[in-house]
Amino acid sequence: MGGQEEVLARLRGAHKAYGKVKALDGVDLSLRGGELLALLGPNGAGKTTAIGLLLGLIRTDAGEAELFGQDPQRIQARRGIGVMLQTATLPPALRVGELIRLTASYYPQPRTLQESAELAGVADLLDRPYGKLSGGQQRRVQFALALCGRPRLLFLDEPTVGLDIQARQKLWAAIRHLIAEGNAVVLTTHYLEEAEALADRVCVMARGKIISEGSVDELRAKVSLKRVRCLTRIDLATARAWPEVVEARMDGERLWLSSDRVEALLRRMLAVDAELTGLEVQAAGLAEAFTELTRDADDTASERREAA
Ligand SMILES: Nc1ncnc2c1ncn2[C@@H]1O[C@H](COP(=O)(O)OP(=O)(O)OP(=O)(O)O)[C@@H](O)[C@H]1O
């Protein structure tokens, strides 16, 4: 990302409270053409609230939300977006083709029915009533509805929940195609491998704030954890008790450890079992980075509460 692309959507110092709950507590976020931003965070972190503000579904208490430089509640701004939310209520009796045609008719320059159907992998479902489809098929139809208007910006809230592996891969490929066309995508997901596979930029949210932002590699680099795997006679309980070990489990026959002091751990392992084989040491994945970052945010929040 050169950072030269136009900002399509932005939150500036956005605050939103529900009673005493600070759903968003001063969030700055901007999204440019051609990028995929993954919004990650534990349940209740504020992801849906942030998306709701950008979609104009709710209003900020303080700060600003902008869509294409306009108020997100303006209809012109909304014509540039496509949305796939976690729950969708669509008329069950309408056929898939009718649903796509109807949705496309709200947009100034929609894709053809065939193009939308092929991108979303629903070309063989066009004559079927929506209500008779399986959960995964309905999810793909919702994706077709999100992209059929040729939106410059797509909001996909947990898009691959309930999809089988093949359908998920197909949807990932379609998302990559949309990005390559110069569109932007905001994706929320609890599948970290999805963010790892697709995202240019990841924002990790916790307790209404963005606690970390950067590329997948930058986030991984922020945490000191490394993964170690090997075949060894060291047993799980012994490894788990070592101070260098953050997490220990068995991965089939192999011992799997994560550690924040990997050199010390390796010295200890070799001292106990000089015969160990198949040793692998890797940087932490996004999953471990995410766990560590959100745990740090929780620790800081409870330290602040204790100090108050
Ligand atoms: N309409 C509402 N009324 C009251 N509280 C709300 C409302 N919407 C959100 N909240 C609260 O605001 C906080 C942030 O919620 P939000 O739905 O944005 O989180 P999230 O990160 O999307 O979570 P999840 O991963 O579970 O979807 C939560 O504590 C939630 O209970």
UniProtKB/TrEMBL annotation:
<dbReference type="InterPro" id="IPR050763">
    <property type="entry name" value="ABC_transporter_ATP-binding"/>
</dbReference>
<dbReference type="InterPro" id="IPR017871">
    <property type="entry name" value="ABC_transporter-like_CS"/>
</dbReference>
<feature type="domain" description="ABC transporter">
    <location>
        <begin position="9"/>
        <end position="232"/>
    </location>
</feature>
<dbReference type="Pfam" id="PF00005">
    <property type="entry name" value="ABC_tran"/>
</dbReference>
<keyword id="KW-0813">Transport</keyword>
<dbReference type="GO" id="GO:0016887">
    <property type="term" value="F:ATP hydrolysis activity"/>
</dbReference>
<protein>
    <submittedName>
        <fullName>ABC transporter ATP-binding protein</fullName>
    </submittedName>
</protein>
<keyword id="KW-0067">ATP-binding</keyword>
<dbReference type="InterPro" id="IPR003593">
    <property type="entry name" value="AAA+_ATPase"/>
</dbReference>
<dbReference type="InterPro" id="IPR027417">
    <property type="entry name" value="P-loop_NTPase"/>
</dbReference>
<keyword id="KW-0547">Nucleotide-binding</keyword>
<dbReference type="InterPro" id="IPR003439">
    <property type="entry name" value="ABC_transporter-like_ATP-bd"/>
</dbReference>
<dbReference type="GO" id="GO:0005524">
    <property type="term" value="F:ATP binding"/>
</dbReference>
